[in-house]
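Q: Could you write out the predicted structure for this multi-component system? I'm mainly interested in how the pieces pack against one another.
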Amino acid sequence: MQDCSGQRVVVVGGGVVGTLHAYLALRAGAEVEHLERDAAPHGATVRNFGLVWVSGRRAGAELALAQRSRDLWEEIAGEVPGVGFRANGSLTVVADGPEADLARAALQLPDAAERGFEWRDWSEARRVNPVLEGDFAGALWCSRDAAVESRRALGALREAMYETGRYHYSPRTDVVGVHDGGVRDHRGEFHGADRTYLCVGGPTHGVFREMHEGVGLREVHLHMIETAPHAREVPTAVANGDSFRYYPAFENLRHLLSPQESTAAEWANQLLVQQRLDGRLTVGDTHEVPSETEFWSSEAAYRVIEEAAAAVIGDLPAIERRWTGIYVQIGERDDPRLYHRAEVARDVWTVTGVGGRGMTCAPAIAEESFS
Ligand SMILES: Cc1cc2nc3c(=O)[nH]c(=O)nc-3n(C[C@H](O)[C@H](O)[C@H](O)COP(=O)(O)OP(=O)(O)OC[C@H]3O[C@@H](n4cnc5c(N)ncnc54)[C@H](O)[C@@H]3O)c2cc1C
Protein backbone atom coordinates (compact mmCIF):
# COMPACT_ATOMS: atom_id res chain seq x y z
CA MET A 1 0.00 0.00 0.00
CA GLN A 2 1.11 3.55 -0.73
CA ASP A 3 1.76 5.99 2.10
CA CYS A 4 -1.10 8.52 1.92
CA SER A 5 -0.09 10.50 5.03
CA GLY A 6 -1.11 14.13 4.70
CA GLN A 7 -3.41 13.38 1.75
CA ARG A 8 -7.11 14.02 1.63
CA VAL A 9 -9.28 11.24 0.17
CA VAL A 10 -12.97 11.59 -0.71
CA VAL A 11 -14.99 8.35 -1.03
CA VAL A 12 -18.48 8.45 -2.53
CA GLY A 13 -20.78 5.55 -1.61
CA GLY A 14 -21.35 3.87 1.74
CA GLY A 15 -21.64 0.27 0.50
CA VAL A 16 -18.91 -2.30 1.02
CA VAL A 17 -16.68 -1.05 -1.80
CA GLY A 18 -16.77 2.56 -0.59
CA THR A 19 -16.45 1.63 3.08
CA LEU A 20 -13.40 -0.56 2.43
CA HIS A 21 -11.83 2.23 0.36
CA ALA A 22 -12.35 4.57 3.31
CA TYR A 23 -10.97 2.01 5.78
CA LEU A 24 -7.82 1.29 3.79
CA ALA A 25 -7.25 4.99 2.97
CA LEU A 26 -7.22 5.66 6.72
CA ARG A 27 -4.85 2.75 7.22
CA ALA A 28 -2.57 4.36 4.61
CA GLY A 29 -2.55 7.55 6.68
CA ALA A 30 -5.03 9.73 4.76
CA GLU A 31 -7.75 12.03 6.06
CA VAL A 32 -11.04 10.67 4.67
CA GLU A 33 -14.34 12.30 3.82
CA HIS A 34 -17.03 9.68 3.11
CA LEU A 35 -20.24 10.71 1.34
CA GLU A 36 -23.43 8.63 1.14
CA ARG A 37 -26.62 9.60 -0.67
CA ASP A 38 -29.10 7.90 1.66
CA ALA A 39 -29.73 8.15 5.41
CA ALA A 40 -28.21 4.65 5.62
CA PRO A 41 -26.79 2.58 2.76
CA HIS A 42 -29.40 0.23 1.39
CA GLY A 43 -27.87 -0.89 -1.91
CA ALA A 44 -26.51 -4.32 -2.82
CA THR A 45 -24.32 -4.67 0.28
CA VAL A 46 -27.02 -4.79 2.94
CA ARG A 47 -29.14 -7.09 0.74
CA ASN A 48 -26.51 -9.79 0.26
CA PHE A 49 -25.68 -13.09 2.00
CA GLY A 50 -22.42 -11.86 3.45
CA LEU A 51 -20.69 -14.80 1.83
CA VAL A 52 -16.95 -14.53 1.33
CA TRP A 53 -17.13 -17.13 -1.39
CA VAL A 54 -13.77 -18.46 -2.55
CA SER A 55 -15.03 -21.83 -3.82
CA GLY A 56 -16.78 -20.48 -6.91
CA ARG A 57 -14.19 -18.03 -8.20
CA ARG A 58 -12.58 -18.58 -11.59
CA ALA A 59 -9.06 -20.06 -11.54
CA GLY A 60 -6.32 -17.47 -11.89
CA ALA A 61 -6.70 -13.74 -11.21
CA GLU A 62 -10.23 -13.95 -9.82
CA LEU A 63 -9.34 -16.67 -7.34
CA ALA A 64 -6.19 -14.78 -6.31
CA LEU A 65 -8.27 -11.63 -5.68
CA ALA A 66 -10.80 -13.58 -3.60
CA GLN A 67 -8.11 -15.35 -1.58
CA ARG A 68 -6.33 -12.08 -0.80
CA SER A 69 -9.65 -10.52 0.11
CA ARG A 70 -10.65 -13.34 2.42
CA ASP A 71 -7.34 -12.91 4.27
CA LEU A 72 -7.94 -9.18 4.50
CA TRP A 73 -11.47 -9.72 5.87
CA GLU A 74 -10.03 -11.95 8.58
CA GLU A 75 -7.34 -9.39 9.40
CA ILE A 76 -9.84 -6.49 9.44
CA ALA A 77 -12.22 -8.47 11.64
CA GLY A 78 -9.32 -8.85 14.10
CA GLU A 79 -9.34 -5.03 14.33
CA VAL A 80 -13.14 -4.63 14.09
CA PRO A 81 -14.90 -7.71 15.54
CA GLY A 82 -18.31 -6.19 14.66
CA VAL A 83 -17.67 -7.21 11.05
CA GLY A 84 -18.76 -10.69 12.18
CA PHE A 85 -16.23 -12.66 10.16
CA ARG A 86 -16.32 -16.42 10.65
CA ALA A 87 -14.37 -19.06 8.76
CA ASN A 88 -17.34 -21.40 8.62
CA GLY A 89 -16.63 -23.07 5.26
CA SER A 90 -19.34 -24.31 2.91
CA LEU A 91 -20.96 -27.58 1.93
CA THR A 92 -22.31 -27.85 -1.62
CA VAL A 93 -24.81 -30.69 -1.39
CA VAL A 94 -24.97 -32.95 -4.48
CA ALA A 95 -27.31 -35.65 -5.73
CA ASP A 96 -26.05 -38.98 -7.03
CA GLY A 97 -25.12 -38.94 -10.72
CA PRO A 98 -23.92 -35.89 -12.69
CA GLU A 99 -23.72 -33.49 -9.72
CA ALA A 100 -21.66 -35.94 -7.68
CA ASP A 101 -19.48 -36.61 -10.74
CA LEU A 102 -18.83 -32.89 -11.07
CA ALA A 103 -18.03 -32.49 -7.38
CA ARG A 104 -15.54 -35.36 -7.56
CA ALA A 105 -14.02 -33.88 -10.74
CA ALA A 106 -13.65 -30.53 -8.90
CA LEU A 107 -11.39 -32.31 -6.39
CA GLN A 108 -8.95 -32.87 -9.26
CA LEU A 109 -8.76 -29.19 -10.28
CA PRO A 110 -5.17 -27.89 -9.98
CA ASP A 111 -6.27 -25.33 -7.37
CA ALA A 112 -8.55 -27.68 -5.38
CA ALA A 113 -6.21 -27.74 -2.37
CA GLU A 114 -5.84 -23.94 -2.41
CA ARG A 115 -9.64 -23.66 -2.22
CA GLY A 116 -9.78 -26.25 0.57
CA PHE A 117 -11.95 -28.64 -1.45
CA GLU A 118 -12.62 -32.05 0.08
CA TRP A 119 -15.32 -34.66 -0.49
CA ARG A 120 -17.74 -35.44 2.34
CA ASP A 121 -19.96 -38.53 2.22
CA TRP A 122 -23.56 -37.75 3.12
CA SER A 123 -23.24 -39.12 6.66
CA GLU A 124 -20.07 -37.05 7.22
CA ALA A 125 -21.71 -33.94 5.73
CA ARG A 126 -24.62 -34.35 8.12
CA ARG A 127 -22.24 -34.78 11.02
CA VAL A 128 -20.55 -31.47 10.11
CA ASN A 129 -23.88 -29.72 9.54
CA PRO A 130 -26.71 -31.55 11.36
CA VAL A 131 -29.54 -29.43 9.84
CA LEU A 132 -29.00 -31.08 6.44
CA GLU A 133 -31.83 -33.39 5.43
CA GLY A 134 -32.80 -35.57 2.48
CA ASP A 135 -30.95 -38.28 0.68
CA PHE A 136 -27.92 -36.95 -1.16
CA ALA A 137 -24.70 -38.51 -2.38
CA GLY A 138 -22.55 -36.17 -0.35
CA ALA A 139 -21.15 -32.67 -0.44
CA LEU A 140 -18.18 -30.69 -1.71
CA TRP A 141 -16.57 -29.07 1.35
CA CYS A 142 -14.72 -25.78 0.87
CA SER A 143 -12.76 -24.75 3.94
CA ARG A 144 -11.79 -21.33 2.52
CA ASP A 145 -15.37 -20.04 2.29
CA ALA A 146 -16.34 -17.64 5.05
CA ALA A 147 -19.01 -15.15 6.03
CA VAL A 148 -19.42 -11.64 7.40
CA GLU A 149 -22.48 -9.75 8.71
CA SER A 150 -23.19 -7.37 5.85
CA ARG A 151 -25.83 -5.36 7.68
CA ARG A 152 -23.67 -4.82 10.75
CA ALA A 153 -20.23 -4.58 9.15
CA LEU A 154 -20.64 -1.16 7.52
CA GLY A 155 -21.67 0.49 10.82
CA ALA A 156 -18.99 -1.37 12.78
CA LEU A 157 -16.32 -0.23 10.34
CA ARG A 158 -17.54 3.38 10.51
CA GLU A 159 -17.39 3.31 14.32
CA ALA A 160 -13.80 2.09 14.14
CA MET A 161 -12.93 4.73 11.54
CA TYR A 162 -14.29 7.57 13.75
CA GLU A 163 -11.76 6.56 16.38
CA THR A 164 -8.89 7.60 14.09
CA GLY A 165 -10.01 11.24 14.29
CA ARG A 166 -9.32 11.47 10.54
CA TYR A 167 -12.72 10.25 9.31
CA HIS A 168 -15.77 12.34 8.43
CA TYR A 169 -18.98 10.64 7.27
CA SER A 170 -21.86 12.54 5.67
CA PRO A 171 -25.03 10.58 4.97
CA ARG A 172 -27.86 12.24 2.99
CA THR A 173 -25.25 13.74 0.67
CA ASP A 174 -26.00 13.07 -2.97
CA VAL A 175 -23.10 13.60 -5.35
CA VAL A 176 -24.41 15.19 -8.51
CA GLY A 177 -21.26 16.52 -10.20
CA VAL A 178 -17.80 15.09 -10.92
CA HIS A 179 -14.93 17.52 -11.61
CA ASP A 180 -11.15 17.52 -11.76
CA GLY A 181 -9.95 17.05 -8.20
CA GLY A 182 -13.30 16.36 -6.54
CA VAL A 183 -17.08 16.13 -6.56
CA ARG A 184 -20.03 18.44 -6.00
CA ASP A 185 -23.04 17.47 -3.87
CA HIS A 186 -26.75 18.33 -4.21
CA ARG A 187 -26.27 21.39 -1.97
CA GLY A 188 -23.68 22.76 -4.39
CA GLU A 189 -20.78 22.12 -2.01
CA PHE A 190 -17.49 21.08 -3.64
CA HIS A 191 -15.52 18.26 -1.94
CA GLY A 192 -11.95 18.51 -3.20
CA ALA A 193 -9.27 15.90 -2.53
CA ASP A 194 -5.91 14.53 -3.58
CA ARG A 195 -7.81 11.40 -4.63
CA THR A 196 -11.51 10.75 -5.02
CA TYR A 197 -13.11 7.32 -5.40
CA LEU A 198 -16.64 6.94 -6.78
CA CYS A 199 -17.99 3.66 -5.34
CA VAL A 200 -21.66 4.13 -6.13
CA GLY A 201 -22.60 0.53 -6.87
CA GLY A 202 -24.90 0.67 -9.86
CA PRO A 203 -23.79 3.82 -11.67
CA THR A 204 -26.72 3.77 -14.06
CA HIS A 205 -28.22 7.08 -12.97
CA GLY A 206 -27.50 10.80 -12.93
CA VAL A 207 -24.03 12.04 -13.68
CA PHE A 208 -22.67 8.48 -13.59
CA ARG A 209 -24.72 7.10 -16.47
CA GLU A 210 -22.86 8.91 -19.24
CA MET A 211 -19.49 8.33 -17.59
CA HIS A 212 -19.96 4.54 -17.85
CA GLU A 213 -21.44 4.30 -21.33
CA GLY A 214 -19.62 1.69 -23.41
CA VAL A 215 -18.04 0.02 -20.37
CA GLY A 216 -20.45 -2.93 -20.63
CA LEU A 217 -22.01 -2.74 -17.15
CA ARG A 218 -24.94 -5.15 -16.71
CA GLU A 219 -27.54 -5.30 -13.97
CA VAL A 220 -28.59 -8.61 -12.39
CA HIS A 221 -31.76 -8.81 -10.28
CA LEU A 222 -31.99 -11.32 -7.40
CA HIS A 223 -34.78 -12.54 -5.09
CA MET A 224 -33.96 -13.34 -1.45
CA ILE A 225 -35.75 -14.53 1.68
CA GLU A 226 -34.91 -14.56 5.37
CA THR A 227 -36.42 -16.81 8.01
CA ALA A 228 -37.04 -16.43 11.72
CA PRO A 229 -34.10 -17.60 13.85
CA HIS A 230 -33.44 -21.32 13.37
CA ALA A 231 -33.69 -23.36 16.56
CA ARG A 232 -30.29 -24.89 15.82
CA GLU A 233 -26.89 -23.63 14.83
CA VAL A 234 -26.20 -24.02 11.10
CA PRO A 235 -22.43 -24.35 11.31
CA THR A 236 -21.54 -24.00 7.60
CA ALA A 237 -22.84 -22.13 4.59
CA VAL A 238 -24.89 -24.44 2.36
CA ALA A 239 -25.26 -24.54 -1.45
CA ASN A 240 -26.84 -27.01 -3.81
CA GLY A 241 -25.54 -28.54 -7.05
CA ASP A 242 -27.23 -25.86 -9.14
CA SER A 243 -24.56 -23.44 -7.91
CA PHE A 244 -22.08 -25.30 -10.15
CA ARG A 245 -24.02 -23.88 -13.10
CA TYR A 246 -23.33 -20.28 -12.15
CA TYR A 247 -19.90 -20.10 -10.53
CA PRO A 248 -17.00 -19.80 -12.98
CA ALA A 249 -14.74 -22.15 -10.99
CA PHE A 250 -16.74 -24.97 -12.55
CA GLU A 251 -17.06 -23.59 -16.09
CA ASN A 252 -14.91 -26.36 -17.62
CA LEU A 253 -16.89 -29.07 -15.79
CA ARG A 254 -20.44 -27.84 -16.47
CA HIS A 255 -20.78 -30.21 -19.44
CA LEU A 256 -21.02 -33.04 -16.87
CA LEU A 257 -24.39 -31.74 -15.58
CA SER A 258 -27.79 -32.69 -16.98
CA PRO A 259 -30.18 -29.84 -17.85
CA GLN A 260 -31.52 -27.92 -14.87
CA GLU A 261 -35.13 -28.53 -13.75
CA SER A 262 -37.27 -26.18 -15.87
CA THR A 263 -38.73 -23.84 -13.19
CA ALA A 264 -35.37 -23.49 -11.48
CA ALA A 265 -33.82 -22.82 -14.89
CA GLU A 266 -36.45 -20.20 -15.68
CA TRP A 267 -35.31 -18.22 -12.62
CA ALA A 268 -31.64 -19.20 -12.94
CA ASN A 269 -31.95 -20.44 -9.37
CA GLN A 270 -29.23 -21.78 -7.11
CA LEU A 271 -29.50 -22.47 -3.41
CA LEU A 272 -27.28 -20.54 -1.02
CA VAL A 273 -27.95 -20.44 2.73
CA GLN A 274 -26.07 -18.52 5.39
CA GLN A 275 -27.12 -18.27 9.01
CA ARG A 276 -26.92 -14.80 10.53
CA LEU A 277 -25.40 -14.29 13.97
CA ASP A 278 -28.95 -13.76 15.32
CA GLY A 279 -29.93 -17.24 14.06
CA ARG A 280 -31.92 -16.16 10.98
CA LEU A 281 -31.28 -17.92 7.70
CA THR A 282 -30.59 -15.78 4.64
CA VAL A 283 -31.66 -17.87 1.66
CA GLY A 284 -31.50 -17.25 -2.09
CA ASP A 285 -31.26 -16.70 -4.99
CA THR A 286 -32.38 -16.10 -8.57
CA HIS A 287 -30.66 -14.25 -11.41
CA GLU A 288 -32.68 -12.21 -13.87
CA VAL A 289 -32.19 -9.21 -16.07
CA PRO A 290 -34.23 -6.49 -14.30
CA SER A 291 -37.51 -5.79 -16.04
CA GLU A 292 -37.98 -2.36 -17.56
CA THR A 293 -41.73 -2.53 -17.04
CA GLU A 294 -42.43 -4.69 -13.95
CA PHE A 295 -41.69 -3.17 -10.56
CA TRP A 296 -42.88 -6.03 -8.34
CA SER A 297 -41.09 -9.09 -7.04
CA SER A 298 -42.49 -12.48 -8.02
CA GLU A 299 -44.00 -15.06 -5.69
CA ALA A 300 -42.96 -17.73 -8.21
CA ALA A 301 -39.31 -16.80 -7.70
CA TYR A 302 -39.64 -16.96 -3.91
CA ARG A 303 -41.35 -20.38 -4.20
CA VAL A 304 -38.42 -21.76 -6.22
CA ILE A 305 -36.03 -20.60 -3.50
CA GLU A 306 -38.16 -22.07 -0.69
CA GLU A 307 -38.47 -25.42 -2.48
CA ALA A 308 -34.73 -25.64 -3.09
CA ALA A 309 -34.07 -24.87 0.59
CA ALA A 310 -36.67 -27.34 1.85
CA ALA A 311 -35.05 -30.11 -0.24
CA VAL A 312 -31.77 -29.66 1.64
CA ILE A 313 -32.74 -28.34 5.08
CA GLY A 314 -36.27 -29.70 5.53
CA ASP A 315 -38.85 -27.50 7.23
CA LEU A 316 -37.66 -23.91 7.24
CA PRO A 317 -38.50 -21.60 10.13
CA ALA A 318 -41.22 -19.07 9.23
CA ILE A 319 -40.19 -16.68 6.49
CA GLU A 320 -40.06 -13.19 7.98
CA ARG A 321 -38.55 -11.11 5.18
CA ARG A 322 -38.44 -11.06 1.40
CA TRP A 323 -36.53 -8.65 -0.77
CA THR A 324 -34.90 -8.22 -4.13
CA GLY A 325 -31.53 -6.73 -4.94
CA ILE A 326 -29.51 -5.69 -7.93
CA TYR A 327 -25.81 -6.00 -8.50
CA VAL A 328 -23.87 -4.54 -11.38
CA GLN A 329 -21.27 -6.64 -13.14
CA ILE A 330 -18.90 -5.92 -15.94
CA GLY A 331 -19.74 -7.78 -19.15
CA GLU A 332 -21.54 -11.09 -19.47
CA ARG A 333 -21.36 -13.72 -16.75
CA ASP A 334 -18.15 -15.30 -18.02
CA ASP A 335 -16.35 -12.02 -18.77
CA PRO A 336 -12.77 -12.33 -17.51
CA ARG A 337 -12.68 -8.68 -16.37
CA LEU A 338 -13.05 -8.61 -12.58
CA TYR A 339 -14.34 -5.05 -12.12
CA HIS A 340 -14.02 -1.59 -13.63
CA ARG A 341 -11.66 1.08 -12.34
CA ALA A 342 -11.05 4.19 -14.46
CA GLU A 343 -9.91 7.77 -13.91
CA VAL A 344 -12.92 9.80 -14.99
CA ALA A 345 -11.58 13.27 -14.10
CA ARG A 346 -8.17 14.35 -12.76
CA ASP A 347 -7.50 12.31 -9.58
CA VAL A 348 -11.08 10.97 -9.57
CA TRP A 349 -11.59 7.22 -10.09
CA THR A 350 -14.73 5.17 -10.48
CA VAL A 351 -14.70 1.64 -9.01
CA THR A 352 -17.68 -0.47 -10.02
CA GLY A 353 -18.91 -3.58 -11.83
CA VAL A 354 -17.81 -6.02 -9.13
CA GLY A 355 -20.92 -8.18 -9.72
CA GLY A 356 -21.90 -11.04 -7.44
CA ARG A 357 -18.45 -11.14 -5.83
CA GLY A 358 -18.38 -7.64 -4.30
CA MET A 359 -18.79 -8.70 -0.69
CA THR A 360 -16.04 -11.26 -1.17
CA CYS A 361 -13.58 -9.07 -3.04
CA ALA A 362 -14.13 -5.49 -1.77
CA PRO A 363 -11.13 -5.42 0.62
CA ALA A 364 -8.68 -6.58 -2.07
CA ILE A 365 -10.22 -4.23 -4.67
CA ALA A 366 -9.78 -1.32 -2.27
CA GLU A 367 -6.22 -2.41 -1.56
CA GLU A 368 -5.51 -2.32 -5.31
CA SER A 369 -6.74 1.29 -5.41
CA PHE A 370 -3.96 2.27 -2.99
CA SER A 371 -1.14 0.09 -4.31
C1 LIG B 1 -29.11 -10.17 -3.29
C2 LIG B 1 -27.61 -10.10 -3.43
C3 LIG B 1 -26.82 -11.08 -2.84
C4 LIG B 1 -25.43 -11.01 -2.97
N1 LIG B 1 -24.65 -11.89 -2.26
C5 LIG B 1 -23.30 -11.74 -2.27
C6 LIG B 1 -22.48 -12.55 -1.44
O1 LIG B 1 -22.97 -13.31 -0.61
N2 LIG B 1 -21.14 -12.44 -1.57
C7 LIG B 1 -20.56 -11.55 -2.44
O2 LIG B 1 -19.34 -11.53 -2.55
N3 LIG B 1 -21.31 -10.68 -3.14
C8 LIG B 1 -22.67 -10.76 -3.08
N4 LIG B 1 -23.45 -9.90 -3.80
C9 LIG B 1 -22.80 -8.82 -4.54
C10 LIG B 1 -22.42 -7.67 -3.60
O3 LIG B 1 -23.49 -7.41 -2.71
C11 LIG B 1 -22.09 -6.42 -4.40
O4 LIG B 1 -21.10 -6.70 -5.35
C12 LIG B 1 -21.56 -5.33 -3.48
O5 LIG B 1 -22.40 -5.13 -2.38
C13 LIG B 1 -21.41 -4.02 -4.24
O6 LIG B 1 -20.99 -3.05 -3.31
P1 LIG B 1 -20.97 -1.51 -3.68
O7 LIG B 1 -20.40 -0.81 -2.51
O8 LIG B 1 -20.30 -1.35 -5.02
O9 LIG B 1 -22.50 -1.13 -3.95
P2 LIG B 1 -23.70 -0.78 -2.95
O10 LIG B 1 -23.74 -1.67 -1.78
O11 LIG B 1 -24.90 -0.71 -3.81
O12 LIG B 1 -23.34 0.66 -2.41
C14 LIG B 1 -23.33 1.81 -3.22
C15 LIG B 1 -23.66 3.00 -2.34
O13 LIG B 1 -23.45 4.20 -3.09
C16 LIG B 1 -24.46 5.12 -2.72
N5 LIG B 1 -24.63 6.10 -3.80
C17 LIG B 1 -25.12 5.89 -5.04
N6 LIG B 1 -25.14 7.03 -5.74
C18 LIG B 1 -24.65 7.99 -4.92
C19 LIG B 1 -24.44 9.39 -5.08
N7 LIG B 1 -24.75 10.03 -6.21
N8 LIG B 1 -23.93 10.10 -4.04
C20 LIG B 1 -23.63 9.47 -2.86
N9 LIG B 1 -23.81 8.13 -2.67
C21 LIG B 1 -24.31 7.42 -3.68
C22 LIG B 1 -25.72 4.24 -2.55
O14 LIG B 1 -26.71 4.89 -1.78
C23 LIG B 1 -25.13 3.00 -1.89
O15 LIG B 1 -25.18 3.07 -0.47
C24 LIG B 1 -24.84 -9.96 -3.72
C25 LIG B 1 -25.65 -9.00 -4.32
C26 LIG B 1 -27.02 -9.05 -4.17
C27 LIG B 1 -27.88 -7.98 -4.81
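A: Regarding packing and overall arrangement: Residues 61-79 form the longest helix (19 residues).
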